[in-house]
Amino acid sequence: MKKRKLLALLLAGSMMLGLAACGGGTQGGSESPSGGGETVSGGETEGKTVKVGLICIGDENDQGYTYNFIRGKEAVTEALAEKGITIDWQIKWNIGEDSSCEDANIELAEAGCDLIINNSYGFEPFMLKVAPDYPEIEFIACTNQASAVDDLPNTHNAFANIYEGRYLAGVVAGMKLQEMIDNGEITADQAVIGYVGAYSFAEVISGFTAYYLGAKSVCPSVTMKVQFVGSWSDATEEGNAAQALCDAGCVMISQHSDNTTPATAAQNAGAFHTGYNNDMISVAPEASLIGTRIDWSVYFEYAIEAVANGEEFEQDWCHGMDEGAVVMTPLNEEIAAAGTAEKLAEVEEAIRSGELQVFDTTTFTVEGQPLTTCMALDTDGDFVADSEEAVFDGAFHESYFQSAPYFTVQIDGIEWLNSAY
Amino acid sequence: MHDSNNPLIRLAKREGMPKGQVWAIRACSFLAAILISALIFLLMGHNPFGAFGTMIVGSLGKKTAIRQTVKIAIPLLGTALAIAPCFKMRFWNIGAEGQITAGAVGASYFALFWADKLPSPVLLVVMAVSGAICGGLWALVPAFFKAKWGTNETLFTLMMNYIMIGVVKWLQGGPWEGRPGSQIIPQFDSAAVLPKVLGVHCGWIIVLILTVAMFFYMKYTKQGYEIAVIGESEKTARYAGMNVGKIIMRTMFLSGAIAGLVGFIVASGADNTLYSGVAAGVGFTAITVAWLAQLNPFAMVGISVLLGVLDKGADTLQTQLAVPASISDIITGIFLFCMLGCEFFINYRLIFRGSHKEVAK
Predict the structure, then answer these.
(1) Would the CA dihedral through B160, B163, B169, B174 be positive or negative?
(2) Considering only A4-8, A385-389, B53-57, which range has the smallest mean pLDDT?
(3) Where are the beta strands (DSSP E) in A259-390?
């Protein structure tokens, strides 16, 4: 008796599974036709749908790196809706920089995406394993650099000139420091910035150097200490590093890492702070002066619109303030030095017009000497830059030969506390 | 009627349940897992039929999907096979994670520095042997301490995991790093990549051969018998003249070597590089696989594929129905919980106060 009941239950269960499988089958079937992209053809942009895959290393809860991509995603969805282009997003969250990234690319390709965006540097090698199998799909690896050498027409790289934003944040920090010196709160040589960096990676080095040069342009006596934490995102370690920097006498903290803990640590230690990726004023209202972030929607709009119209788009894209791809988060007027907003507008305009070069070689020295030569790209795969002279016309040209940053010079005035990472 | 001295529910060991009933309980638990998962989908606002359908189509509906499911199942099966002899011996090796990683390091050394010096087939064999030896030696350390001084193998093997993962982190940021500061070891040369058979790296053939080999080893060899005797009673084994310490070390080396081989398969076949997450929790999930399969190698095949289906299916669910990624973990957890939980009802029965009727479910 009991057995029969069980059997019945079992049958019911298998039927349910069977039904479910059928349901899924039709669903999968209805989805594949949209793979072609332009569901409504015709010369106009009216009523087009683009299926875009986005592979994220985190999720929006990180309030930093991936969250910034999600903001870009939302902005571009709105912007393109006005142009009559609908974006059907397929998003993979919390993907590792390993073969699961390859799987994610395959899955999105099979789901019929026209364009697949990989948001983390380490995704690129896995994306490149999938891209050759789907020549009709465009693959984008943000912040990486292989599209120039991989011989695949459907791979792309993109980044933004975030060093421009860093420079501006540095100007804000420098003005605050100079004001503190002028008010007698600190002496000129106590104007020390502490910088929490993830790794001694080109993107980080380029960022903090630009930041330092921005500060130095308005506060000549400033120096900087950099502490690497060995992780892109480790809230505790970032906070500890900021605390240690404050203990070592730093009165201004900035960061290239994902969390807000350096901001709160700075506030607790009575120091000031400038942020990255996100507006941190709400978590540290007495410390956070300003932040800078990449507005990814600018690139997304460019790329997705191109795909919707069946046009080619650049394989290596990099823009900054000129196209609004780098933006500043709101200035904390309560605590910023007097006149910061005006100065900020002035410098921003100078960068936008190209009149001001962030890495102007007259503004910094390397071991006491001006920088006269520095290669930009590595073409033979040994990870040492060997081609394309980046120093010309009186400046080091960052992100000029490729979108991914390549400034790795240690300049005078910046002290690396640890270079283990 | 109310015997207040007795607790409301008592447990009693149950012996010799008929086979049919055992399988009925298992089927019920599977059903329960489906129902509970369905409830979760409902709570999330999704049609459970559609959700399960998406999972099945997503994991088995297409050639590419099946390939990915198999790719997930390969290291699970391999590692479950690796820990089976240890568990049979009642030596709780929960260090497979570290042994996989150690194997991957051993294999990666040759992939990174010998790729231009050896022809591809030779290189792959060297990588496999090196991976197996590294994994085996890493497992030998806790076995040696256990055999010599009776240290606790559970804690010891667990701690060894973190050491090995730390070593890989150091390699990633130090001597083996590619682009400075990137923390990424370059991709292997194509000579060091396992060839694909039917669209999936040939690791699947290796683990299937291992499955058969392990079955025979455990069932028909003298060493397999020794392992079983020690598992039943160490004293009996000693009395029968077996060198228990030696057998422990030999079995652990074998276990670690298979885990190391899995490390080689994952690094060479799937990732084509080495990174600290190479084991990706497989060393722990494989314990569940081995346990659910009751250490039967052939049952492990089915269970690792089932986990692959769940894993891949939940992944598709996340993209197509936009359910949070953590739901995939919850669903997998529910299935494992129900399936492991049902073994409890197979081994024990509940006796309610005031009644002596057996409760089958």
Answers:
(1) negative
(2) A4-8
(3) 272-276, 288-294, 316-319, 326-328, 375-377, 387-389
Which neighbouring-strand residues pair with A53?
Answer: A90, A116
Fold agreement between A18-160+296-319 and A162-294+337-416: yes
Residues in chain B: 361
Cβ atoms of A217 and A160 closer than 8 Å: no
The answer to whether the CB atoms of A16 and B30 lie below 8 A apart is: no
Identify whether the C-beta of residue A233 lies closer than 8 Å to the C-beta of residue A253. Answer: no
Are the Cβ atoms of B173 and A19 closer than 8 angstroms? no
- Within an 8 Å CB–CB cutoff, is residue B179 touching chain A? yes
Q: What is the spatial distance between Cα B239 and Cα B242, in angstroms, rounded to a whole number? A: 7
Work out how many CB contacts closer than 8 A connect A with B.
148
CB A24 within 8 A of CB A63: no
Residue B354 has pLDDT above 70, yes or no: no
Residue labelled with tokens 């060297």: B126
> Are B181 and A200 a contacting pair at CB < 8 A?
yes
Residue B187 touches chain A, beta carbons under 8 Å: yes
Cβ neighbourhood burial of B117 (10 Å; 0-12, 13-18, 19+): exposed
Residue B160, both tokens: 């060894």
Query: Does domain A162-294+337-416 correspond to CATH entry 3.40.630.10?
Result: no
Residues of B in contact with A102 (CB under 8 A): 270
Do residues A254 and A308 lie in contact, with contact meaning Cβ atoms separated by under 8 Å? no
**Percentage with pLDDT > 90 across chain A:** 67
Q: Which two tokens stand for residue A298?
A: 């600018």
What are residue A156's DSSP bridge partners?
Answer: A140
Contact A17 B34 (CB under 8 A): yes
Nearest to B179 among A98, A383, A420 (CB): A383
Q: pTM here? A: 0.81
Q: How far apart are the first and last CA of chain A?
A: 68
Nearest by CB: A96 against B55, B183, B277: B277
Site of tokens 């069977």: A18
Of B47, B181, B266, the CB nearest to A199: B181
Of residues B65 and A26, the one with the higher pLDDT is: B65
3-state secondary structure of A256: strand
Helices in A274-339 by DSSP H: which ranges? 297-308
Q: What ipTM was assigned to the predicted interfaces of this complex?
A: 0.79
**Spatial distance between the Cα atoms of B37 and B327, rounded to a whole number of angstroms:** 10
Cβ–Cβ contacts within 10 Å for residue B120, how many? 15
Q: Tell me which DSSP letter residue A337 carries.
A: P
Domain boundaries, chain A: 18-160+296-319, 162-294+337-416
Out of A9, A98, A202, the one facing B275 most closely (by C-beta) is A98
- CB atoms under 10 Å from CB of B223, counted, come to 14
Contacts of B65 in chain A (CB under 8 A): 107, 110
Using a CB-CB cut-off of 8 Å, the residues of chain A touching B181 are 199-202, 204-205, 408, 421
Q: Residue B99: what residue type?
A: Q
What are the CA-CA distances from residue B302 to residues A7, A314, B16, B72, B80 (Å)?
22, 47, 24, 13, 12
A137-187 per-position pLDDT tens digit: 999 999 998 888 888 999 999 999 999 999 999 999 999 999 999 999 999
The radius of gyration of chain A's CA atoms, rounded to the nearest angstrom, is 24
CB within 8 A of B232, min separation 6: which ones? none
Which pLDDT belongs to residue B2? Answer: 52
pLDDT of A16 > 50? The answer is no
Order across the sheet with A223-228: list the strands.
A326-328, A288-294, A272-276, A252-256, A192-197, A223-228, A414-416
Q: How far apart are CA A207 and CA A225, in angstroms?
A: 14
Q: Which of the listed CATH numbers 3.40.50.1000, 3.30.70.260, 3.40.50.2300, 3.50.80.10 matches domain A18-160+296-319?
A: 3.40.50.2300
